[in-house]
Design brief:
single chain; about 900 residues; six-stranded parallel β-sheet; about 15% strand; extended
């Protein structure tokens, strides 16, 4: 067993700590069903009777029989915990404190998703159960699939009924045991008709609504799938604890092996069709051994294209690095529990006795092997650039190795011939082998084989009698020569494998280091330029590629951020398409793969924050699955950095806006309080002056009246500022009472009488009396603000009106005019604070009246909005709830 197998069998220390910490915790058992009536409570009570028969202390905390006699009969002999009276509900609640004090071995808690009455210790029953479990009490409970939080919206879409009471999925998943209670839809509907689920006419209504046959099929499938997922997770966890030394064929899962002579499009498509037919997941792996690492570039490109095709067809792809293909595939299959392995039929080689499939069958007898016949052998595809550069570099390295081997052979022979004359020939053999090892470590397999051969010849010529010839007088030296040759070849192969593994480990360490450096640098980046500089530096070092960061400006146009780099500039059309669709484009993708760069969207959630353009020196860097995953990781890190930067800027802006708003409110409050008293005095004096002048028939009565009206207008403005300051501080308290609509509007018109002298206001109110439940003073303020706003901005020649009508259970009101209307860009902003219809207008005001009106109407559970009338002018619409008014007796009217 190798080190990897030891790592697999070694227990997880975190799991051991978790098991130790949970040793005192009670056990949770859940009876799980598709819907009500399948028999969950019945099965729970049967289990309780069985446990009571074993001598356990079983307590009934909550059991709802719903009037079913056969279910109630199972309560016989069980201790029942008295319910706790609440005083706020006609139903008593579960007494948690009494259950903890009683501390039974097992407690029954029906209806897990129940919501406790207000005032209970916990709002939900599952929280009560959590406390019971922490106290070491075993709990048995029941729940339906529609009460799971993650499936709540799915069930609502199927049945059309929104379930309000839910249970968090983590609590359900933490159960020690889940028992599925299943019943076919026809049997369940028959139980409904027989009155075994609901009593009375509720059964007929249930059959016609929630318990329709289609609904039951869908709920049953959800329950079965949820239970199957849990069992699958349990099986995986058990395999992790017991070790992955064997594949369990609990489901059909396929592993496709791709190699230099077994990789073809036919093989990939065969595996994809098989996985689709079985409805299973499938993986595709390529094992890169030292031998395959020396393949020509065209063959390696073909393998990568095959892996990419498998990924496009839905496979999970991986590239493994191991000297032994069969062992690497077997290890991957056992780690991922893949029981069916698909491979291509390899061509027969005379020098190899066992094929890949045969070796895999011997190592993994528990696996199912499927060998697919290939149409034609895989051939090297011609490449326009040829393979000369890579081939020349390889032969140069081999030539240097052979020269070094020759030099070492001469040095060892000279030293042994003239300086180590007294040494035994066996020591000379060891020195020659040391030279072979040195050559193998530095230059690889073939130079080490050459060093072995020339060392044998040198040893024979200079140290074996008769010297000077290749003949030997003692046949034992033939064994020495054979051992030297075997050791040299073995050492060369082992050294080549070690060098290859070291190379792979070095690459992986570099990738991990680059990821760390990028994550660390992006964590402290504050501007887009910092993010662009970090991404360009890391991608250049990691992938030997040029990169650009494209971010949208305020107008939504993509612009390059950071330093300009040499290379092919990205096409604007491709970049816009990738940004708008949120999909990659360019080399290695399905969209315009002929361009020499790849455009990757920087997505966080559903929002695309920019583009990363990568142009490698060698396009193969973008086709290797590991490199593609590395690039994907880079894009995730950059997108998260951009999102963090955006959130930081939004937080700073929000904090500044909050501080500015707080300062503004404090200033408004201070000014309003300081202005209100002198304005009130000024209004009183102006009114007295106007009355005195009117009694004396003075010609200055009109001037005094103007002073009074302007003072009153200023008082309303200050009142608005005070109201807004009070609203911001949470001081808006409604004094609700039943008031008549015409009285509220009449009071507002009375306040506006001086302004309405020169204007005609059309009234269209219902003939019957409309009663509103609300704060009359606040509602009067709303109508005053709306009428004043209409008079200010509609113009002196405009007509004004108020129309009200009842629409079902709501009161609809429109305050309209036939003036110029509201600009389209201000329709939604006009109710914001300090926003005016015309910023440059000479009309007095600060833009608070409509904001206050909106707050007041929303406090009355109503809506207010503005719109332009088709016939011209503006209209402010109000929609208020119209509750049932109390009956007024004749004596009350008198």
């Amino acid at each position: 067993m190798n080190d990897t197998d030891d790592d697999v069998l070694r227990p997880d220390p975190d799991a051991l700590l978790l098991n130790h910490s949970d040793s005192h915790r009670g056990k949770l058992k859940i009876y799980f069903g598709a819907c009500a009536g399948v028999g969950k409570t019945f099965a729970m009570l049967q289990e309780a009777q069985r446990l009571r028969g074993q001598g356990l202390d079983v307590l009934v905390g909550v059991v709802e029989t719903h009037g079913r006699e056969e279910t109630a009969a199972l309560l016989t002999g069980l201790a029942i915990l008295p319910r706790r009276p609440t005083g706020r509900s006609r139903h008593a609640e579960f007494d948690l404190d009494a259950a903890l004090a009683r501390h039974p071995a097992v407690i029954l808690m029906d209806e897990l998703a129940h919501t406790n009455v207000q005032g209970s210790r916990h709002p939900k029953r599952w929280q009560d159960i959590e406390e019971l479990l922490e106290a070491g009490i075993d709990v048995i409970t029941t729940v339906n699939v529609q009460h799971l939080e993650s499936l709540n919206d799915v069930v609502a879409g199927i049945t059309g009924i929104q379930v309000r009471e839910t249970v968090p999925d983590p609590f359900f998943d933490s159960a020690d045991e889940v028992v599925l209670v299943d019943l076919p839809p026809d049997d369940l509907r028959q139980r409904l008709k027989e009155g075994k689920v609901y009593v009375g006419d509720r059964a007929e209504r249930a059959i016609e609504n929630f318990f329709r046959k289609g609904n039951l099929f869908a709920l049953r499938e959800l329950a079965l799938r949820r239970t199957a997922d849990r069992v699958d997770d349990q099986m995986r966890a058990w395999r992790d604890r017991q070790g992955r030394d064997k594949v369990w064929h609990t489901r059909d899962a396929i592993l496709l092996c791709i190699g230099d002579d077994t990789g073809s499009e036919k093989l990939v498509r065969t595996a994809a069709r098989l996985a689709a037919r079985l409805g299973s997941e499938w993986h595709a792996v390529y094992v890169e051994t030292p031998r395959l690492n020396r393949l020509p570039e065209t063959r390696r490109r073909g393998i990568l294209r095959t892996l990419q095709l498998a990924q496009e067809l839905g496979a999970e792809t991986a590239t493994l690095s191991d000297p032994d293909e069969a062992r690497a595939v077997l290890r991957y299959a056992r780690e991922h529990n893949l029981g069916k392995i698909v491979t291509g039929r390899q061509p027969q080689r005379r020098w190899r006795r066992d094929s890949f499939a045969q070796r895999l069958g011997k190592l993994g007898p528990d696996l199912d092997l499927l060998v697919v016949a290939l149409d034609e052998p895989v051939r090297d595809a011609p490449h326009p650039l040829g393979n000369k550069p890579a081939s020349n570099d390889k032969w140069r390295r081999h030539l240097r190795g052979c020269l070094m081997a020759l030099l070492l052979c001469v040095l060892v022979t000279t030293a042994g011939r003239w300086m180590l004359v007294e040494f035994d020939p066996a020591n000379g053999v060891m020195i020659y082998l040391l030279a072979v090892v040195l050559v193998a470590l530095r230059y690889g397999r073939w130079p080490s084989v050459f060093a072995t051969v020339i060392n044998i010849l040198a040893f024979d010529l200079f140290f074996v009698a008769p010297t000077g010839t290749v003949a030997v007088s003692d046949l034992q030296y033939l064994v020495t020569f054979a051992v030297m040759l075997a050791v040299g070849v073995i050492v060369g192969n082992l050294t080549a494998g070690v060098r290859y593994q070291a190379k792979v480990a070095r690459y992986r360490e570099q990738r991990a280091r680059h990821l760390y450096e990028m994550a660390k640098s992006l964590g402290s980046a504050l501007t887009p330029q910092d993010i662009a500089a970090t991404s360009q530096r890391v991608i250049d070092v990691t992938l030997q590629a040029r990169s650009q960061l494209l971010l949208p400006n305020e107008q939504g146009e993509l612009q390059t951020v950071g330093e300009a780099v040499s290379g092919t500039p990205p096409d604007t059309g491709i970049a816009k398409w990738s940004f708008s669709k949120g999909q990659p484009a360019g080399a290695g993708t399905d969209t315009l793969p002929a361009v020499p760069y790849q455009i990757l969207p920087l997505k966080s959630g559903n929002l695309c924050r920019g583009l990363l353009v990568v142009e490698p020196e060698n396009l193969r860097q973008l086709m290797i699955p590991e490199q593609q995953r590395l690039v994907d990781t880079f894009t995730v890190l950059i997108a998260n950095a951009l999102e963090r930067m955006t959130l930081s800027q939004s937080e700073a802006a929000s904090r500044l806006a909050a501080e500015r708003e707080q300062l503004r409110n404090a200033l408004l409050s201070a000014l309003s309080h300081d202005l209100r008293t002198p304005l009130t005095v000024l209004f009183g004096q102006a009114e007295m002056l106007m009355l005195d002048l009117a009694n004396d028939n003075s010609k200055y009565v009109d001037q005094a009246s103007q002073i009074r009206e302007q003072t009153l207008s200023t008082i309303r403005l200050v009142s608005n500022m005070l109201d807004m300051a009070r609203i911001q501080s949470g001081g808006l308290n409604l004094r609700e009472e039943w008031v008549a609509l015409d009285e509220v509007i009449g009071a507002a018109l009375g306040n506006m009488a001086p302004l309405l002298k020169c204007h005609h206001l059309a009234m269209d109110l219902p003939p019957e009396m409309i009663l509103i439940k609300g704060d009359s003073a606040m509602l009067e303020r709303v109508f005053t603000n709306l009428i004043e706003n209409s008079l200010k901005y509609a113009g002196n020649a405009a007509q004004h009106g108020i129309r009200a009508w009842c629409d079902k259970a709501r009161l609809e009101i429109a305050v309209w005019d036939n003036g110029p209307g509201i600009p389209a860009e201000n329709i939604t902003r006009i109710f914001d604070k300090f926003v005016r219809g015309d910023k440059e207008s000479a009309v007095p005001g600060v833009g608070l009246g409509l904001a206050i009106s909106k707050t007041i109407i929303e406090s009355h559970q109503g809506r207010i909005w503005a719109e332009n009338r088709p016939e011209g002018g503006a209209a402010f619409r109000l929609s208020l709830p119209l509750p049932t008014a109390p009956e007024i007796s004749e004596e009350g009217l008198k």
